[in-house]
């Protein structure tokens, strides 16, 4: 049987991680892996998470299974954090999943189950796992223009033009905030225009909300998702708690499916069914911690304060890098870095220049020149700027 297997193409980022580990240079810089890091290079456990873990250890009395869709308390608390009061509760079906990736996979499985002929539209570029999972499931896929390689901003005319070709019933995947890999985000006016086009085309929005709280603030980053949720009769939202709670290895995510009241029970039953087919009961530890934090006023306040510290640190690094590149290159062509939001930005370097940065300067980034801003600190910002000025001019 195994003789028929073909080698799989290695994951680009995982390859980069291993190359970084194998590099013996002390001054190397890792800007590839997409996790938040503090100034010491550590991905810390947040204060509220530590406090919740201690309380859970003291009070937990069982490790029995959760429900197929996860614990209702987590689903309710996470949905409230994401949706606020934008939609009535009786429109919301939800299921806990193993991370945001699990939520995306379950959403695509639900689309395939409900409308197997639907085309899923992705931004160009997008997170590589989006097209990878769609191809694996054998689903139809198309792209809409998103990023302008010259301005390092959004190709809004191209985006609107391409979305105008979406067929009724097609699904359009949108990054709710902090676009990965570009860091370029729609403003409120642009979001409204996108919603107008999707509404006119009869499309179904599918929002990937992986970085709520990392861009402009916890509530601000949910604004576009809430607007879409309120305007459309059917919406899919795949959200992750890995980043904003710093619990990457706990694999905590949620899939939300919005429908009308009459459809909700059927949709909820299908979410539970899909969980059963893929992994039965979802993991609970991370979900339990999130629930405890969101339901406790003191823990929630401390979590929000630390999340804001994380966001402001990345924003400060963005401004510092843009300033350092201006000084090193004598131009403002990297000013977009300060305008982008979230962990990522695409610098516009060639693959050859990326290789040169790695080989000659020990600076690791993805081949399309996407960097993780959170991989920098006050010491490495000028080092990166000087290296880019040397390699790219």
What is the compact description of this entry?
With 393 residues, this protein is of the alpha/beta class. The chain has 14 helices and 13 strands. The radius of gyration is 21 Å and the shape is globular.
Molecular structure report:
- There is one protein chain.
- This protein has 14 helices and 13 strands.
- By secondary structure, it is of the alpha/beta class.
- The strands form four sheets. A seven-stranded mixed β-sheet has the order 2-10-9-8-7-3-4, sandwiched between helices. Strands 1-12 form a two-stranded parallel sheet. The chain has a two-stranded antiparallel ribbon with strand order 5-6.
- α7 (188-201) packs parallel to α8.
- The longest helix is centred in the C-terminal third of the chain and has 33 residues, at 297-329.
- The protein starts with 11 loop residues before the first helix and ends with a helix.
Task: Pick out its properties.
Aspartate Aminotransferase, domain 2; Aspartate Aminotransferase, domain 1; two-stranded parallel sheet; globular; 393 residues; 13 strands
List the helices and strands and how they pair.
Elements: H1 12-22, E1 29-30, H2 47-59, H3 72-83, E2 92-98, H4 99-114, E3 119-124, H5 129-136, E4 140-145, E5 147-148, E6 153-154, H6 156-163, E7 171-175, H7 188-201, E8 204-209, H8 223-231, E9 235-240, E10 252-258, H9 261-278, H10 285-295, H11 297-329, H12 336-339, E11 344-346, H13 351-361, E12 363-364, E13 370-372, H14 380-392
Parallel strand pairs: 1-12, 3-4, 3-7, 7-8, 8-9
Antiparallel strand pairs: 2-10, 5-6, 9-10, 11-13
Helix pairs in contact: 2-10, 2-11, 3-10, 4-5, 6-7, 7-8, 10-11, 11-14, 13-14
């Amino acid at each position: 049987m195994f003789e028929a297997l073909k080698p799989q193409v290695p994951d680009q980022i995982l390859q980069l991680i291993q190359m970084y580990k194998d590099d013996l240079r002390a001054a190397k810089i890792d800007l590839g892996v997409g996790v938040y890091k503090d100034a010491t290079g550590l991905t810390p456990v947040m204060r509220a998470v530590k406090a919740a873990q201690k309380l859970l250890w003291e009070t937990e009395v069982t490790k029995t299974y959760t429900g197929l869709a996860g614990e209702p308390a987590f689903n309710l608390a996470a949905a409230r954090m994401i949706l606020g009061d934008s939609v009535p509760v009786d429109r919301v079906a939800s299921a806990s999943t193993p991370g945001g990736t699990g939520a995306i996979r379950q959403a695509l499985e639900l689309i395939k189950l409900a409308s197997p002929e639907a085309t899923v539209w992705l931004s160009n570029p997008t997170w590589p796992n989006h097209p990878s999972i769609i191809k694996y499931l054998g689903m139809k896929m198309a792209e809409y223009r998103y990023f302008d390689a010259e301005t390092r901003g959004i190709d809004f005319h191209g985006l609107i033009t391409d979305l105008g070709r979406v067929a009724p019933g097609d699904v359009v995947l949108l990054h709710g905030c902090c676009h990965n890999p570009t860091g370029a985000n729609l403003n409120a006016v642009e979001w409204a225009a996108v919603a107008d086009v999707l509404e006119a085309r009869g499309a179904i929005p599918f929002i990937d909300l992986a970085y709520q709280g990392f861009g402009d603030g916890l509530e601000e980053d949910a604004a576009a998702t809430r607007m879409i949720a309120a305007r459309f009769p059917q919406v899919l939202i795949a959200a992750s708690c890995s980043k904003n709670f710093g619990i990457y290895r706990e694999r905590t995510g949620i899939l939300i499916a919005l429908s009308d009241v009459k459809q909700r029970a059927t949709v909820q039953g299908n979410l539970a069914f899909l969980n059963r087919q893929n992994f039965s009961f979802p993991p609970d530890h991370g979900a339990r911690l999130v629930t405890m934090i969101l339901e406790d006023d003191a823990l929630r306040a401390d979590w929000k304060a630390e999340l804001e510290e994380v966001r402001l640190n990345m924003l400060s690094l963005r401004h510092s890098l843009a300033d350092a590149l201006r000084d090193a290159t004598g131009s403002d062509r990297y000013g977009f870095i300060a305008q982008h939001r979230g962990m990522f930005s695409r610098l516009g370097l060639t693959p050859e220049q990326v290789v040169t940065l790695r080989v000659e300067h020990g600076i690791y980034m993805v081949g399309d020149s996407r960097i993780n801003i959170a991989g920098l600190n006050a010491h490495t910002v000028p080092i990166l700027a000087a290296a880019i000025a040397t390699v790219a001019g």
